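Work through what follows:
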Amino acid sequence: MRRFWTALLCSASIFAQQAPAPPAADGSRDGPPVRLYRGEVIAMSYSGGAGEISLRDTLYRVHTCDLTGATWIEMNNRRVAPAAIRLTMSAELVAGMRPSAGGCDALTIYLSEALPRWSAARPLATVPSTSGFLDNLWPRGNLIFTGTVRSAGQSELIVRTRAGEERRMRVRDDTVFSTGGRIVGLADLEPQRRVHVRAGRGYDGSLEVYQVTWGDILQPDTAAQTPKSSPNP
């Protein structure tokens, strides 16, 4: 019996030494905990291989992490330099937390241009969105053009304005086409169609189109608006 208990205690000791360590609170077993922050870039500084970036999420909380030379910054599936980070951009930041010293290090940053904020009169259900936090960012489509469509393709829209100028605009993945209050596709936009365009400058300075609207303008009923002559007294 004594030999049995001795063998059992030895087995338990060996099992305890070989058992893997319990996972951390964030689910990782090795290295510092990692968190994901999403929001709008409100502050950024970088010089000499070091700096910091601040994001504001949809609850108006500010998260600030350090930037290093090892931080991977990506936009449009390409790595970019820290100089490409601009205010009002939307970002997803993978941060390595520092429990001992506090703060966090930016490990990976995914950048994208902010989507325009739609008017409150527009039904939000008609606006396609893949991530809810982008819908509340500051608008960027602050340029308005009215003219005639010269050509409309998957990548470029050319509009001839009233002044006779041709405006070439890049078609975005989230460009909205609407007519008669309905959301339609690019295929419904015909050449020579008179349109109202809302556009803005992209990260490279070129024009990007955010919304194209067209439709028939109702003519006023002149007969109904003509005042009736009053009878002679």
Summary: The domain at 29-112 is CATH 2.40.50.140 (OB fold (Dihydrolipoamide Acetyltransferase, E2P)). The first helix runs from residue 2 to 18.
